Amino acid sequence: MLGEKNTEGFLHDVAGNLKRHVYREYYTLDCVYYTDEFNNFEGGGYPVGFDVIIEHENGNRPEEEWWKMLMWRAPLKVLICYDYTDQSKRTNPARENWLVGKLETFAEMKRQASEGWQGRKDEDEYLILVGYLPPGEKLPHWRWL
User: Fold this and answer.
1) Best CA proximity match to 33, nearest among 22, 42, 44, 41
2) Helix count (H) and strand count (E) of the chain?
3) Which of 30, 84, 105, 114 has a CA between 20 and 30 Å from the CA of residue 4?
4) Any residues with CB less than 8 A from the CB of 92 and at least 6 apart, and which?
């Protein structure tokens, strides 16, 4: 999705179409989109905020990515993570409600962040993309929340 360099790949094509800059691995964030219009410092490089933050988790700890999105400013925050396959859920009952548990954890983390940071205006929109790879297929299937 990002490509081998900072100037190629699907996410860079999207940035070009939206007339935004895209930067991957910006501090600890996987991918951010922003404009230069609101740059605080002469010479560039320090946007006041981001238009979009994208965090991607291949493993089973998406809470770490979610936490980062709670701490940074952006009107749209996107989390990409993966659920277990139906077959894996049947053979390991602990995985059956894994995704539901994660979503409940996300809601609780957001509640705690909002309560713990008095005066924070949390008007951000969150998009959660959940992929899973069915047996015998090469590309994941996607759900969104």
Assistant:
1) 22
2) 4, 6
3) 84
4) 84
Say which residues have a Cβ less than 8 Å from residue 140's Cβ, sequence separation at least 6: 82, 131, 132, 133
CB of 81 closer than 8 Å to CB of 39: no
Tokens of 43: 């010479």
Tell me phi and psi for residue 137, to 5 degrees: -110, 155
- Estimate to the nearest angstrom the gap between the alpha carbon of 15 and the chain centroid: 16
Rounded CA separation 94/104 (Å): 16
Q: Is 31 exposed, middle or buried (0-12, 13-18, 19+ CB in 10 A)?
A: buried
29 pairs with which residues across the strands? 26
Which residues are CB-neighbours of 43 under 8 A, at least 6 positions away? none
- Rounded Cα distance between 88 and 106, Å, is 23
In the β-sheet with 29-34, what is the strand arrangement from edge to edge? 21-26, 29-34, 52-56, 76-82, 125-132, 141-144
Whole-angstrom Cα distance, residue 43 to residue 68?
A: 27
